[in-house]
Amino acid sequence: GKVLGKPIDLVSADHQGKTDVGANIAGEWFDRKGVDMITDLTFSNVALAVENVAKDRKRLTRSTGAGSLAITNEQCSPYNVHWMYDTYALANATATALLAQGLKTWYFITADYAFGHALEKDARAVVTANGGQVVGGVRHPNNSSDQSSYLLQAQQSKAQVIALANAGIDTLNTVKTAAEFGIGGSGGQTLAPLLSLITEIHAMGSKARGMVLTTGFYWDQDQRARQFSMRFYDQHRKMPTMMQAAVYSAVLTYLKAIEKTGSDDAAAVMATLRATVIDDAVVRGGRIRDDGRLVHDMMLVQVKEPAAGGTGWDLYDIKRTIPGDQAFQSLAQSRCPLIRK
Question: pTM of the prediction?
Answer without folding.
Answer: 0.92
